[in-house]
Amino acid sequence: MNQKSSGLASGSIWSIIDNLAQQAISFVIFAVLARFLAPDAFGLLTVAHLFILFTRLVVFDAIAMPVIRGGAPDDRLYSWVFTCCAAVALLLTALMFFSAGAVSSMYRAPELKPVLQGMSLSVLFFGLVRAYEARLVRKMMFRQLAVRSIGSVLTGGVVGIALAASGWGPMSLVVQQVTASGLALVLVVAQSRWLPRIVFDRGLSRKYWNDIRQVGLSGVLSFANTNGDSLLVSIFLGPYATGLYNLAKRVTSSVYLVIASSMQKVALPVFSDAGADLSALSRGYLKIVGITLFCVAPLLCFQAVLAEPLVAAVFGAKWLPAAPIVGVLALLYLLSSIVHLNDYLFFSLGRNRVPVLLGIAQLALATLLAVNFYHYGLLGMSLSFCGAYLLVFPISQILLNRALGLKLRAMWYALAPPLVGSLILVLGLLLYLSLIPPGLGNAALVAGGVFIACFLYPFMVAVTGWRIRAVNASWHGLLLSAMRLGRMR
Q: Mind telling me which residue stretches traverse the membrane in this protein (predicted)?
């Protein structure tokens, strides 16, 4: 039991390190590449990457996930996963390569054809590596996965930057991605010290078919919710707008991926420990939401207000058209951090259909609004995606509050400090921008905003929450409880 707990703790730590390191390294590489390349180049890569993400979520994960969740998989079962993924990967690679001309014609972008054909190699590499990943995850060898991810992303980034500086244009991004995925495969094979056999087994196919279909359908919905916006932008507005949208999305989503997703992992044991006790679930939920907003809200508000100097200082003046989109997506991801936490709690309550139905409704609304407002350009489409979240969020919150018997007064006690602090922060930053003398450099402007935010936000949170935290359980108490739980385990 101690060994299992130790392995779980070690795996969690390495998983977090993997996530944080990948986000940090990828963001730095992206910022450097943005200095050398135009938005069109990133837009072309995004279109190709959408196809790869779809295959990973809907095909390869659908084959591998039932095995990871299963009872006691052996090497023969992993070899069957490898055989299925490899066979499908070969077909999808050929499909992507030979359909590149037709897709580029549909997008009216001839330069998209070589990008799609080059990126088709990544589909093959992802298919070949999926069985190895499943085997390492099941054996809780997260350190090896982290080393693989960090090494491949860093190496691919260095290669991509060198080629971009040499004038390779969009193909530098293709070589970067193919190098990273190919090196990831080589490293995993070397770390695993395991070579699969070719195994075709109809019995295993029949046994896992229902699970594969279920995971595949979930993957379709997940892909649509997380990447449907980029797909719609690429279809209606083309590669240039897609590149701008991709930058705005990466800037804002990085906050969500690092902070909000980590808090969702913390939420799972908190909700599990509460069990069917609605009072305990409510307290745990309010604390997790409070901590999440405390960390996420000021960063997103800072990005929204100082988007223009921030984009110009980090990525260059050619990316300034993406600045208004950063402000819109900051609100979207602020709402998203709460909605996804609500989904976790719905699953804990056994109401699994609610998040699925809300996700479908949000996706349908976003698509409907985007189709009607794409004539207003990228800002119109971004507002459409945000508007869909604004319409679905109250429904999600009302349903959850009813399920928990949670009153608005209790929510206000929990969320007032970060919300009031963020509002005052926005007003303070707007005042700062209005009083700043003209001619100040973008870097200096951002640095001054950081100084104001570091002072103003904590001060307002402390003032607002001094008495409220005495009524509602302290956030600091939750962190101490989590630390004690970790020591007990």
A: 20-38, 44-65, 77-103, 115-133, 145-168, 174-195, 215-241, 253-272, 284-307, 319-342, 354-374, 380-400, 412-433, 439-459
Residue with tokens 């870097």: 443
DSSP, residue by residue, 198-216: ----HHHHHHHHHHHHHHH
159-161-163 Cα angle (round to 5): 70
DSSP per-residue codes, 47-79: HHHHHHHHHIIIIIHHHHHHHHHSS---HHHHH
75 CA to centre of own chain? 32
Residue 1, judged by CB atoms within 10 A of its CB (0-12, 13-18, 19+), counts as exposed
Residue 423 contacts residue 299 (beta carbons within 8 Å): no
488: tokens are 């007990």
Distance between CA 489 and CA 486 in Å, rounded? 5
Q: E strands of 373-427, at which residues?
A: none
Q: Decide if 270 contacts 83 (C-beta within 8 A).
A: no
Q: What are phi and psi of 74, to 5 degrees?
A: -110, 180
What's the farthest any 2 CA atoms get from each other in the chain? 73
Global pTM exceeds 0.85: no
**CB contact at 8 A, 139 and 194:** no
pLDDT per position as a tens digit, 422-479: 999 999 999 999 988 877 888 999 999 999 999 999 988 888 876 555 544 444 444 4
Q: For residues 18 and 192, what is the distance between their CA atoms, to the nearest angstrom?
A: 18
Q: Give the residue ranges of DSSP H helices in 166-201.
A: 170-192
Angle in degrees, 0-180, between the axes of helices 170-192 and 112-138, rounded to the nearest 10: 20
Question: Long-range contacts for 343-346 (Cβ within 8 Å, ≥24 apart)?
Answer: 343/396, 344/264, 344/267, 344/268, 344/271, 345/267, 345/271, 345/281, 345/285, 345/400, 345/404, 346/399, 346/400, 346/403
Which residues, at least 6 apart from 248, have a Cβ–Cβ distance to it below 8 Å?
Answer: 322, 323, 325, 326, 328, 329, 382
CB of 464 within 8 A of CB of 417? Answer: yes
- The residues near 178 (Cβ < 8 Å, ≥ 6 apart) are 118, 119, 121, 122, 125, 156
